[in-house]
Design a protein that fits this description.
1 helix, Jelly Rolls, 7-stranded antiparallel sheet, about 0% helix, about 220 residues, mainly beta
Length: about 220
């Protein structure tokens, strides 16, 4: 497991969180192995499976297998636990867990959305929306966050504009890019603040995740 934000390093500007992003963790889970974790209350939990398959189980009785290329979102109202198990038939499961703090107080109990599959073709050379507020075409965000996914060919250049006051977090799943004049490669992440946008030039074939978030 790789922790993007590490609360014990509070001297770091992003040691604790970034905007409304509370957790951005990357996992490699061997076949049939499980991880049980405490859910972070009053957040949205986005699960993305990059390779393999992941079986999810939580205390609300939700059980589902999320496969490669799928994103799933759960709104966490109160503290609970979730078990994730590698359900891949042949290899290690590579996945991400992203917690986004809610910007308004929800009601009811934990709710789960069915996974959304985003194909490689949909993500090819564009910032493909995965989660946005007020739409039925993507996962629904109650944290006012926008999550995008892309698979980009070498030489491509894309720009994501930021409205005043918003921030962006860029994570490189694999590949090499130059983003706002900073070189990034596989596993790297970068926070963008007080900028008009995110400018990305692709050096090697790249998959990335981009979160457009309100300030904390």
């Amino acid at each position: 497991m790789w922790l993007t934000f590490y609360p014990e390093e509070n001297a770091d500007a992003v040691g604790d969180s970034f905007g409304t992003i509370a957790v951005f963790n990357e996992f490699m889970l061997p076949l049939h192995e499980s991880v049980v974790s405490e859910l972070v209350r009053e957040t949205e939990l986005v699960t993305y499976v990059h390779k393999g398959a992941l079986a999810l189980e939580n205390q609300a009785g939700y059980s589902r297998v999320v496969t490669a290329g799928e994103f799933q979102c759960m709104t966490v109202i109160r503290v609970g636990k979730e078990r994730v198990t590698s359900a891949s038939t042949a290899d290690t499961t590579h996945f991400f867990l992203i917690y986004l703090r809610l910007t308004s107080q929800p009601t009811g109990i934990v709710s789960n959305e069915e996974p959304v599959r985003i194909t490689s073709a949909q993500r090819r050379n564009v910032l493909c929306p995965v989660m946005t507020p007020n739409t039925r075409k993507t996962l629904h965000s109650t944290s006012d966050a926008r999550l995008y996914s892309s698979i980009l060919d070498p030489g491509r250049h894309i720009v994501h504009e930021l409205t005043p006051g918003r921030k962006a977090w860029l994570h490189i799943v694999y590949g090499t890019v130059t983003a706002n004049e900073v070189d990034l490669s596989t596993g790297d992440g970068m926070g963008i603040t007080d900028e008009p946008g995110v400018s990305i030039t692709v050096i090697k074939t790249t998959e990335l995740l981009l979160v457009d978030t309100l300030p904390q």
